[in-house]
Design goal:
- The structure holds two protein chains of two kinds.
- By secondary structure, chain A is of the alpha+beta class.
- Helix content of chain A is about 25%, strand content about 40%.
- In chain A, strand 2 and strand 3 form a beta hairpin.
- The longest helix of chain A has 18 residues.
- Chain B is an alpha+beta fold.
- Classes of the chains: A alpha+beta, B alpha+beta.
- Strand 3 of chain A pairs parallel with strand 3 of chain B, so a sheet runs across the interface.
Chain lengths: ~450, ~475
């Protein structure tokens, strides 16, 4: 019988411990997945594939020096052993060439963590049959990605972490003949044909609105409701450096004025890194147990994400952040606006389902630009009137989620990352919708 | 070079398949990323990766399986997984590829100076440390970083029609950046990094200008910190090549990708304002606009002899005298659309399937020196080095920002300004192209980070361009 991913990782760790020389230390991260990717276009399969991959990231430390090597594993015990040995040789040749690293800081705790979620996944044939049943007459485009994802960590100090979960993520759009589209997603660890059909039906109903004549808006300021998926685009941009200790210390964070106390967000805003209960591993890529952290409390900055390296460089306390200091399970607290009251409370303005391609117009000022995308509607007197043509906004975060933030919805959505760059990602965010008094459209 | 090629051929020949066509694409990548930040070397990051993608065609339906198990049994199992998947999706497949031609050529391609040894790691680190150390001590300089990434990639493509295509390439990405901050505002200036990369050897570091750049780049960051904001209003816009590459990439490259036009990317990367019927008909820009797909500039990042589906690559005009001629569409897109395209079917590695990508997408030089370009502007602004990019999913409404701005008044360069941004609409913007720099302004650049596709892929893309002038563009600054 073939070894399980956990057994393979354990064997790798055992081999590494046996090969370790005096005064040497290691950290070893492991990442593996067996994924099925099925792309759809026009409701049919455009491209189908099966990807089996595993890799290890070995950090070798000796005499205050460190270097890292990532290598692909070959699905055979001897190949894996050979590649581990080669990596060790390579790193042992490299270390003497380096100066001692003043920011080297290792987590020496022998922590243990184990998470195994093995709910069975549907056969791709079953998924295809349900797509055919539900979307045969629809212009559906998107991707179904599914299979087990594994993350492991071990260190020479005795730490050992394992995270394995079967999961699926079906991310799709339905296009109206007008060219307008609505986006939908069904993701999780336990597939239900009924739940999928319900999501599909929900998206299908929104399509009806997209056939109405397009409303063309002029630049200006508008009341707007940002659905959770739209708000997620804003928080995702902030996650790149916003809460990072290194970025904050080196003038590269869009939230530097928030953390310096020069600016503040709406008192309605509470932001947490909520790892517990999320789908992310309970340990960071550096090999520390992650912590739940309150990043923003009632609009004011609180904790920042501090990696071990930043802790050493900037004299801070490490708090289990990944090396790139980005939240992996961002949670924005809900407010008091009921989901069924959103349109009435918006009254007249924009209902924005999704935003797209955000970037900064002025990073230190947290001024950002981006576009509406998918199902964005013009609402009058609390009723949807028409889809809106693609519009660009350009606004400061301190306005959007500061002075102009009127309310947050009580209900929140758990949004699982659809990113598959390099590998299927495990990040998530848990967000409400946001009602904004004024959103500045520029083009 | 191609050490595993003979073994792969042997194993490929031993594969057993019921498919009418199958292929193997083996990719082996090695890379080394070095960086010195604020005079401290970051831990070197080394990477070794290899695996293979097996693709099958059964009754016109294609599917793939990717594996890092390169043993005979590992490859055979992957092939069988691909076969099973092709059969499973056959009832709902979008495409019948029964009649699509397949590659059968045999060819080897190597980067220029591939056999030239590079300095050992310690020397590379010393070079970066020297550059870092050249930054003047100034409390406002809060961050600076010298970096060098080197990747070598070997790819072997074999198929059941007899093709054998081998690529061996080496890519270098040197860079330097500095950030100045006064506690409230911060401004960064950079050289290379995401805006420069080439194939080759040591000469790439020289062409980037990394050596001796540290003090100058840091000084420019300080200048920006003290500079006024870019004024708001329409101006003639002189874009230098390290912003032109982004302008080409986003508002010519992506909209011309045929898979977007065919709808494959509508759920993620987006669609295009260009329609299939526009080729040969649409005046994309002014008559000064000449855009080529050019795989023949050896040092440019995406120069190659064949793409990842085995289609031979050659220089083609996509836009000539402003008229749109052909899309960025590889063999599959050409088969689907009936349009002539180019050899741009590319994958980021062994675990992702080829799709339509930009490769080398260039603007051909014009006839004006930089002095002439500046001299021809009465009320304008020069912008260089991209730092922000945003464009709609049809690749039409854009807003881009640069690190460095310099006002132009009455044909002369004037004050430096910070936060230079501009916005426009692709379908109109290129009509405003009013002057094109000559070969003295032409630079071969490229980026390692072009993202697209489901599942997602990042590929290296080359862009070469002269400096260009666009008339009456909406420019503006930041809040600070």
């Amino acid at each position: 019988m073939a070894a399980t991913p956990l057994q393979r990782f354990q064997t790798l760790v055992d081999n590494l411990r046996a090969a370790l020389g005096p005064d040497e230390h290691f950290t070893l991260s492991y990442s593996a997945e067996h994924s099925q990717f099925i792309r759809f276009n026009h409701g049919r399969v455009r491209q189908a594939g099966d990807v089996s991959q595993a890799s290890a990231l070995l950090r070798l430390v000796k005499d205050g020096r460190q270097a890292e090597m990532q290598f692909t594993l070959g699905d055979q015990a001897q190949v894996d052993r050979d590649r581990l040995d080669q990596a060790l040789v390579h790193l042992r040749e490299t270390l003497p060439l380096l100066a001692a690293d003043p920011y080297l800081k290792l987590d020496e705790q022998p922590w243990q963590s184990h998470s195994l979620l093995e709910a069975p996944l549907p056969d791709p044939g079953e998924v295809l049959a349900e797509v055919e049943r539900g979307a045969a007459t629809l212009d559906l485009v998107g991707i179904y990605a599914a299979g087990p994802v594994c993350r492991g960590f071990a260190s020479s100090f005795g730490a050992f972490g394992w995270h394995q979960a079967n999961s699926f993520n079906f991310d799709w759009s339905l296009f109206h003949a007008s060219g307008q589209a609505v986006k939908a997603n069904y993701a999780g660890q336990s597939w239900s044909g009924e739940a999928f059909a319900a999501r599909l039906q929900q998206a299908r109903e929104q399509l009806d609105y997209l056939g109405r004549p397009l409303r063309v808006l002029s630049p200006g300021q508008y009341r707007a409701f940002l659905a959770p998926a739209a708000l997620e685009e804003i928080t995702a941009l902030l996650c790149w450096g916003g809460f990072s200790a290194q970025s904050l210390a080196t003038g590269d964070s869009p939230l530097q004025r928030l953390y310096s106390g020069d600016a503040q967000l709406s008192p309605l805003l509470n932001i947490d890194e909520q790892v517990s209960g999320s789908l992310s591993p309970a340990f960071s890529d550096e090999g520390s147990p992650r912590s739940d952290l309150r990043l923003v409390s009632e609009g004011r900055a609180l904790e920042r994400l501090v990696s071990a390296r930043s802790a050493a460089e900037f004299a801070l306390e490490a708090n289990g952040a990944d090396s790139y200091e980005s939240p992996c399970a961002l949670s924005l607290g809900g407010g008091d606006l009921g989901g069924s009251d959103v349109l009435a409370r918006l009254d007249t303005g924009l209902y924005i389902s999704n935003l797209w391609y955000l970037n900064y117009s002025d990073l230190p000022a947290a001024r950002m630009t981006g576009l509406t995308r998918f199902a964005t509607f013009w609402v009058e007197d609390g009723r949807i009137q028409a889809p809106v043509s693609t519009m660009r906004f350009d606004d400061s975060l301190y306005s959007l989620l500061g002075s102009q933030l009127e309310a947050l919805t009580r209900e929140r959505e758990l949004i699982l990352s659809t990113s598959t760059y390099g590998q299927r990602q495990t990040g998530s965010s848990h967000l409400p919708g946001a009602l904004v008094r004024g959103l500045t459209l520029t083009l | 070079m191609f050490d595993s090629s003979a073994l792969l051929r042997q194993r490929f020949a031993a594969l057993r398949s019921t498919a009418e066509f199958f292929s193997l694409r083996h990719v082996r990548q090695s890379s080394q990323s070095l960086s010195v930040r604020r005079d401290v070397a970051e831990p070197p990051f080394l990477h070794e990766d290899q695996g293979a993608m097996l693709t099958v065609r059964i009754k016109g339906i294609e599917a793939y399986a990717a594996t890092a198990d390169l043993s005979q049994s590992g490859l055979q199992q992957a092939l069988e997984r691909a076969e099973a998947l092709a059969r499973q999706v056959s009832g709902l497949a979008l495409l019948d590829l029964s009649e699509q031609a397949v590659a059968s050529e045999r060819h080897d391609y190597c980067s220029p100076n591939l056999d030239q040894p590079l300095p050992p790691l310690a020397e590379c680190l010393a070079l970066l440390a020297a550059e870092s150390a050249s930054v003047p001590r100034d409390s406002r300089l809060v961050n600076w970083q010298a970096s060098l990434s080197i990747s070598t990639v070997e790819q072997v493509y074999l198929n059941s029609a007899g093709a054998q295509l081998r690529h061996a390439q080496r890519f270098l990405f040197p860079g330097f950046s500095a950030t100045a901050s006064d506690g409230r505002d911060s401004q960064s200036r950079s050289l290379g990094r995401e805006n420069f990369g080439q194939q080759g050897g040591l000469e790439v570091i020289e062409r980037c200008g990394l050596v001796g750049s540290g003090a100058r780049v840091a000084d420019q960051a300080l200048q920006l910190l003290l500079a006024p904001n870019t004024p708001t209003g329409p101006r003639d816009l002189l874009l230098m090549p390290d912003q032109m590459m982004l302008q080409i990439h986003e508002s010519i490259g992506h909209p011309l990708e045929m898979d977007r036009i065919l709808g494959d990317e509508r759920n993620y990367a987006g669609t295009s304002f260009v329609k299939a019927s526009d080729f040969g008909e649409l005046q994309y820009g002014s008559r000064l606009l000449n855009v080529t797909f050019d795989p023949s500039i050896g040092e440019e990042l995406a120069s190659y002899s064949h793409d990842d589906d085995g289609t031979p690559a050659s220089k083609q005009f996509l836009i000539r005298d402003g008229l749109l001629l052909r899309p960025l569409g590889g063999a599959l897109s050409q088969y689907r659309s009936g349009l002539d395209g180019v050899a741009n079917s590319r994958a980021c590695g062994w675990n992702r399937a080829p799709i339509d990508r930009m490769a080398n997408l260039n603007i051909e030089p014009g006839d004006q020196s930089l002095d002439q370009l500046v001299g021809g502007i009465e009320h304008g602004i020069l912008m260089r080095t991209n730092r922000s990019w945003s464009i709609d999913d049809a690749r039409n409404k854009f807003q881009f920002g640069c690190e460095w701005g310099q006002l132009i008044e009455n044909g002369e360069l004037k004050d430096v300004v910070k936060n230079p941004n501009y916005r426009g609409i692709s379908a109109r913007f290129w009509s405003n192209l009013s002057a094109v720099g000559d070969r003295s302004t032409f630079q071969v650049l490229g980026t390692p980070n072009c993202g697209k596709g489901e599942p997602n892929q990042v590929v290296r893309v080359g862009h070469a361009s002269p400096a260009c002038v666009f008339s009456q563009i909406d420019v503006f600054g930041g809040d600070a």
